[in-house]
Amino acid sequence: MLMSDTYRRIATDGIWNNNIVFGQNLALCPLLAVTGTATNGLGMGLATLVVIIASNGLISVSRHLIPSEIRIPVFVLLIAALVTLVDILMNAWAHELYKVLGLFIALIVTNCALLGRAESFASKQPVKLALWDGLMMGLGFTLVLVALGAAREISAAGTLFANASLLLGESFKFLEVTVIPHYKGFLLMALPPGGFIMLAFLIVGKRMIDNVLAARKTQSVIQATEAVAMVD
To answer: Which residues, including other chains, have CB under 8 Å from residue 93's CB and lie 6 or more apart?
Structure first.
């Protein structure tokens, strides 16, 4: 039961409460740079997801072998090796997407969220929990990338997951949707300022949801307290 609660808490933190973007305000550079479309966001999110899961697992496995004095350089080295491997594989198997994302794949190395999870969690936890934490943190980051990319793409061009079959492969063609037919477009949303504007809307939306949930929780506690008082 306690283990189940631990996994649930890690999932909630990674996807919502301590989300890399919303909770930690990290990885904003690739977030704003590559989310011109939902397809680009999905590609970048999946690449980061693979790296953070693998790095968390490797660091957890080797945590007793790494001297604490040199742990940070070792963590960076492991993450850099994994990013290089992902970069090579994407160049070989998803070349069109690789050309679109360009330098930002290699810059996953500089994503403070990966090093932060390695230092604060993976280096102190068993492998299963470290892998689960990497999966949830990666999914949370991917969801924000896709949500921001989708919002910008719809408002800029009226489409969703445009060119998914070209960038990700024919099996992703079903994702391509024209949301607003004959839409003339809103160029600002495709440019960097549009990324900042849409990200601000997403952050405000999350905080409004958090406020509503907190108010409901408070109301439930008040009602429970009143019920106990009436019984007494």
So the answer is: none
Two tokens at 112? Answer: 């403070």
Intra-chain end-to-end CA distance of the chain, in Å? 31
Region for residue 181 given its phi and psi (left: phi exceeds 0; alpha: psi -120 to 50; beta: otherwise): beta
What number of H helices and E strands is found in the chain? 10, 2
Query: Under the phi-then-psi rule, with left for phi > 0, alpha for psi from -120 to 50, and beta for the rest, what region is 98?
Result: alpha
Structural domain boundaries enclosing 219: 2-231
- Residues 126-155: pLDDT tens digits? 999 999 999 999 999 999 999 999 999 999
User: What's the rounded Cα separation, in Å, for the pair 175 and 177?
Assistant: 6
- pTM: predicted TM-score of the whole model, two decimal places: 0.93
How far, rounded to the nearest angstrom, does the alpha carbon of residue 117 sit from its chain's CA centroid? 13
pLDDT digits (tens, 9 = 90+) for 8-32: 999 999 999 999 999 988 888 888 8
As for how many domains the chain has, the answer is 1
What phi and psi, each to the nearest 5 degrees, are found at residue 160?
A: -140, 130
